[in-house]
């Protein structure tokens, strides 16, 4: 009996040691995962604050973290005030229409659209809609074309020079051409979309489709010969071969291209909005630069940080989608 007790005591002590080791390793991993990024952020803020005090511009001192925080609160207040004005505008119309209808039941009430200035947050929404629409169009073109190029060596040889020719072209070069084409082709008395929106959208699509196209073609052409032999043995049709063999094998490369394309699309959009004067974050930055007030630098810096944060979040969303669609759940993706 005493030996059994000693054995149980030994087992429990070993289990306790393992439990402590597991807890210790978990704490270390948590500290590394959270502590190091937090430390890097603190060091960055300190360097930013110290450096900002040394830079003096024609509009005053370069904004540090505290000034950027104040301008963030100011932009939130401006947005809330604009939404309140919009609500009052519609309330006045409804009240006036109700009075007119009470006097004249045959009166047809009309509601005019609010034409107030878009706020910072409104322009964030416009930029997101534009970049996602342009990215979606680019994906619809790049993925099917990349699959065809990857499966056909002759087609790859024919299109590769064109791809390499247009891939490095700057959005600033595309923008005037896209603007003229949209102005010439999109002529309608009742346009569904603004020309400036279409100009930004097509410029984004033209500039961001190349990484997805190239990575898709490379991923498709690199499918394992063993899998291709299996497809031949089973006598799969072309469509079934693509769906069952090619796409699952090339998903990592396709999503790598999509992540690169989305990042490029987000960068291109800001320049396109500046030059096309389409409402969005790019136009907001340009307007603040032209405004030249004492708050302009701080507001531009807010926009810069928001642009970076949204770009980071878009990349994380694409990473989650990659993990969800990839067949190899154990693959390391970052």
From TrEMBL:
**Keyword Cytoplasm in annotation:** no
Give the CDD domains listed for this entry: TM_PBP2 (cd06261)
Ranges for domain ABC transmembrane type-1: 124-318
- Source domain of life is Bacteria
Instruction: Identify its protein family.
Output: Belongs to the binding-protein-dependent transport system permease family.
Q: How does it sit in the membrane?
A: Multi-pass membrane protein
Fetch the PROSITE patterns from UniProt: ABC_TM1
| Secretion signal span | none
From the record, give the transmembrane residue ranges. 128-151, 172-189, 201-224, 245-276, 296-314
Keywords, in A-Z order: Cell membrane, Membrane, Transmembrane, Transmembrane helix, Transport
Asked if the Swiss-Prot or TrEMBL record annotates the protein with the keyword Ligase, the reply is no
What is the recorded name of this protein?
Nitrate transporter
- Record's subcellular location: Cell membrane
Q: What is its main location?
A: membrane
Spell out the Pfam families in the cross-references: BPD_transp_1
Identify the InterPro entries for this entry: MetI-like (IPR000515), MetI-like_sf (IPR035906)
């Amino acid at each position: 009996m005493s030996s059994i007790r000693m054995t149980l005591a030994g087992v429990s002590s070993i289990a306790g040691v393992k439990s402590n080791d597991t807890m210790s390793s978990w704490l270390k991993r948590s500290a590394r995962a959270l502590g190091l990024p937090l430390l890097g952020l603190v060091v960055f803020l300190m360097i930013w604050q110290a450096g900002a005090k040394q830079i003096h511009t024609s509009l005053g001192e370069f904004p540090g973290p505290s000034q950027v925080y104040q301008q963030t609160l100011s932009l939130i207040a401006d947005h809330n005030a604009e939404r309140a004005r919009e609500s009052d505008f519609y309330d006045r119309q409804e009240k006036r229409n109700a009075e007119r209808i009470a006097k004249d039941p045959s009166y047809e009430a009309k509601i005019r659209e609010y034409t107030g200035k878009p706020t910072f947050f409104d322009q964030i929404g416009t930029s997101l809609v534009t970049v996602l629409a342009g990215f979606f169009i680019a994906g619809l073109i790049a993925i099917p074309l990349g699959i065809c190029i990857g499966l056909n060596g002759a087609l790859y040889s024919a299109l590769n020079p064109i791809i390499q020719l247009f891939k490095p072209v700057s959005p600033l070069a595309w923008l005037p051409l896209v603007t003229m084409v949209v102005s010439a082709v999109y002529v309608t008395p009742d346009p569904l979309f603004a020309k400036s929106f279409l100009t930004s959208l097509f410029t984004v699509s033209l500039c961001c489709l190349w990484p997805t196209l190239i990575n898709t073609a490379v991923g498709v052409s690199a499918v394992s010969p063993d899998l291709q032999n299996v497809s031949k043995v089973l006598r799969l049709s072309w469509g079934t071969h693509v769906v069952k063999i090619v796409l699952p094998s090339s998903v990592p490369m396709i999503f790598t291209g999509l992540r690169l394309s989305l990042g490029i699309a987000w960068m291109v959009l800001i320049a396109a909005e500046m030059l096309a004067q389409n409402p969005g974050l790019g136009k907001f930055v340009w307007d603040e630069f032209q405004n030249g007030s004492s708050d302009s630098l701080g507001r531009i810096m807010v926009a810069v940080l928001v642009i970076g944060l949204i770009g980071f979040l878009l990349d994380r969303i694409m990473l989650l989608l990659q993990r969800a669609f990839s067949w190899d759940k154990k693959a390391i993706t970052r």
